[in-house]
Amino acid sequence: MSENHDAARPAVKTAVGPAPDDWGPGRAPDPLSRHRSGTIGTRVSRVDGPLKVRGAATFAAEFRFDGMVYAALAFSTVPKGRITELDTAAAEGAPGVVLVMTYRNAPKITPLPEWYTEGKAVAGDTLPVMQDDRIHWNGQPIAVVLADTQEQADHAASLIRAGYEPEPAVTSFEQAKAAGRHPTFHYGRPLKTEISDAEAALAAAPVKVDEIYRTPFQNHNAIEPHAVTLAWDGDELVVHDASQAVVHTAWSLGYAFGLRQDQVHVSSPYVGGGFGGKSLWSHHILAAAAAKLAGRPVRAALTREGVYRVVGGRTKTEQRVAIGARPDGGFDALVHTGVVAMGRHNTMPPEPFITSTGSLYAARSFTLEVEAAHMDMLANTFMRAPGEAVGSFGLECAIDELADRLGMDPIELRVRNEPERNPTSGLPFSSRHLLEAYRVGAERFGWTERSPRPGTRSEGEWRVGMGVATASHPYIRLPGGEARITLTADGRVIIDVAAHEMGMGTETTTAIVAAERLGLDLDQVTVRQGDSRLPGLIMAGGAQQTAVIGGAVSAAHRALLAVLIELAGHDSPLAGLRPEEVGCVNGGLHKLEDPSRFESYTDILARAGRGEVSVEASGPPPLELTHWSMRSYGAMFCEARVNAVTGETRISRFLGSFDCGRIMNAKTAASQFRGGIIMGLGLALMEETHLDERHGRIMNPNLAEYHVPVHMDVPEIEVMWTDIPDPHSPMGAHGVGEIGITGVGAAVANAVYNATGRRVRDLPITLDKLL
Amino acid sequence: MPIVINGVATEVPPDPRVSLLDLLRERLTMTGTKKGCNQGACGACTVLADGERILSCLALAVQYDGRRITTVEGLSENDTLHPLQQAFVEHDGFQCGYCTPGQICSAIGMVAEANRGAPCHVTADLAEETVVLTREQIRERMSGNLCRCGAHNGIVEAIAATYGDGAS
Fold first, then answer.
1. Chain A, nearest residue to B145 by Cα
2. Inter-chain contact B150–A303, Cβ cutoff 8 Å?
3. pLDDT band at residue A19, thresholds of 50, 70 and 90?
4. Does B113 touch chain A if contact means CB atoms closer than 8 Å?
5. Out of 1.10.10.10, 3.40.50.720, 3.10.20.30, 1.10.1660.10, which CATH number does the structure's domain B3-74 have?
6. Cβ count within 10 A of residue A142
7. Interface check B109 vs A, CB under 8 A
């Protein structure tokens, strides 16, 4: 179904019974996954829309405290060494300055542990923050200035003079690779898979490709720069943050300052884009430390340059993809190996660019491995679809190159290698309809109009070509989901969950799902999120929030049913029923097999003399992930135009055809898909963080020289989806926030090849590579 | 002379370094106008000065003495949204909402430019006195306002539905 074609909805609402209490084997699907009478899957406008269009949604740098001062940072200009001289006198004497903090006077701060320690650590690196004279990357903060106004703080920071004793640093990728390659891990698992002897199979294969693909450093560039506005209240710390992990951040800041998690209150009701970058970085710790030292609340709003210096981005990759095939196209060997650049003190996994490769094609042998080469640079981190976004570039270009060599349509080649089970884990697929997505996408896009011979279609000075690639992203549901449902005497509910609204539409989707589960209208549901004091340990990462919240709300729904039946008592039409026998509809409960036995929430609460009923529950453990191979899929179709004179590439058409389980909100899901595709167009054509490989300094730390797609770069993007529910996930849904960026780089590169006959294996595809 | 912001007269700040953006956000706590880059590259801080779209991060407040500034807070009346604001909600012209006030103010300024017949890069006939706001025209004229979430299609649809050749 496409965004603008809603399925017909029955007028009469049907009841929804409780979901199973886990999604392990033998469980019936969530009844919501097939529920067709309500708003699920329709186009619902964002509940926070009116607030946002009036500029009335409050972001981190817009909260205030009495007596608040402003922070400015000074950054190192060498990549490695010691600070030998740090003259802060002029800054300290400048008008309005309240404090200059350096390693000499910063309070004791405990370095943060490895990523996800206790399921909660979310700092980018394990380095001590401003505790000694050592420099670990070019751009590391060396001083924090606090002043009464931002102008005063900025001026004073400019007066700080530093001298260094530099030490030899590894600042180029070539140098790093030569110094040694190291094994890598992704959430504890080695990024290495070997099935049978792929190299031998490759050598023996009658048809093969064996190429190197490269992707550069990139930065998230959310339009809202990172910021905290924070204050100490005795031993408690209140932080207004731009965060995609509020509870994790509360725990992590507590760890740094020797506090319990509940002594740190992190609030982040709205986030101006995250894309993986809004975890915990040194500005959080520096702002809290400086506030403590100065005894004043602090606003630390990073400059755009500051974001590049303090917050890591996506690292660069060099990938070898080799495929050995039989003449009929079947894969004998699939090799996807390579190396990524990595900071020395990263807590984060590197780009795990092989994670799709092991799931997509039925090869007879595999060698998959990611190694890391260490550089003296800021820790890299997750950026939208880590691994998948860049791994799909190498893999899906290689598939296209192989199809070309076989003289076969690239979709047909994929059809011939469609696996029946996950080819590396052996697990059955929970829900995989990739070929259906290809079929409907190809038909809609007019794929048959593509000329199989590259460089044969021109319109004026524009060469026109079409390309295709597979999109794929894992389904994830991390443990930690909890939610509270509060039903009030007027029959309304409040859903409390420590989730995050960064633009995905979480608040709206949560309200839609809760309304359907509880048999209420959308306007009877209020969702509160973005606060560390709400239930749950939920990261807005891995495109998992919808599934995690869905699982937690369904558990709380079961608990609520039990409480309500008990409250209803012997005089209710519901007397004697078990929770499994009832469903929610029209603001109350009825027996699923006898709708005449109904009682409204308001009647139940009134008779029980209760003003409200509140239940809190944890989502079941993600058993589904141990029994099935769970992924989302898509087919990406691109029409590119390459100017024969200038080499400029323009994307004239793009279509994404997705298989992501049941779609909850057609309006916001379509925007998520498009948004991913648009960031993918940036990845394909323009995005690159330039590191000066002599000094390890980022040379384009701004939005003027780091190019992201602008309106003129973005055509109308068509999106469609199978809407087939996954029987093994809450609501039958998968996350949709990250898959959109995957496959786009390859779809564009394949279209550029089809247009010009030029194969670019080194992103971004800038015009110099096509001249 | 004061700066008149959404109809309210405001004294210029004594510190001449204060940008119009920081005057709004930090002195007047009018945080609807956003800071995305503070160097004129993203458009999030766009406001209207006597009806013209400007980047308030590149404008010193003192330069706007005597001028009339309209910010996103000045577009709606109480709870009644400006038609373009309503169209942004309807056509889902945003995700996170951070670039949104700048997109909306920029679009209103852009329409005034088009109504005056000001050409742009994709205008075929520079002598043409009337500009028809096709989607291509809108895209070109709005390219100074970045959106990272990728709501571009919705933004263009919202503007086209309100002011474009197919607008009612």
1. A710
2. no
3. very high
4. no
5. 3.10.20.30
6. 21
7. no
The whole-angstrom distance between B163's CA and the closest CA on chain A is: 17
How far apart are the C-alpha atoms of A334 and A325, rounded to whole Å?
9
> Catalytic residue numbers of A?
738
Interface contact B15-A57, CB threshold 8 A: no
Place A13 in a pLDDT band, splitting at 50, 70 and 90: confident
For residue range A243-268, list pLDDT tens digits in order.
Answer: 999 999 999 999 999 999 999 999 99
Nearest C-alpha in B relative to A305: B37
Token pair 């031998």 in the structure block, residue: A200
Q: Which residues are B130's β-sheet partners? A: none
Q: Does domain B83-163 have CATH number 1.10.150.120?
A: yes
Cα–Cα distance between A247 and A267 in angstroms, integer? 9
Q: Kindly give, in sequence order, each residue whose CB lies less than 8 Å from that of residue B8, ignoring residues fewer than 6 positions away.
A: none
pLDDT, tens digit (0-9, with 9 covering 90-100), for A510-531: 999 999 999 999 999 999 999 9
Which amino acid is it at B149? C
- Does the beta carbon of B58 lie under 8 angstroms from any beta carbon of chain A? no
In chain A, which residues have their Cβ closer than 8 Å to the Cβ of B107? none
Q: Is A550 on the interface with B (CB under 8 A)?
A: no
Q: What are phi and psi of A143, to 5 degrees?
A: -155, 150
Q: Of A55, A223, A270, which has the smallest distance from its Cβ to B146's Cβ?
A: A223
Q: Which tokens in the block code for residue A680?
A: 């993918």
**Chain B interface test: which of A221, A711, A744 (most B C-beta within 10 Å):** A711
Q: Which amino acid is at B110?
A: M
Q: Do domains B3-74 and B83-163 have the same CATH topology?
A: no
What are chain A's domains? Answer: 31-38+478-621 (3.30.365.10), 60-168+223-273+278-310 (3.90.1170.50), 317-476+626-769 (3.30.365.10)
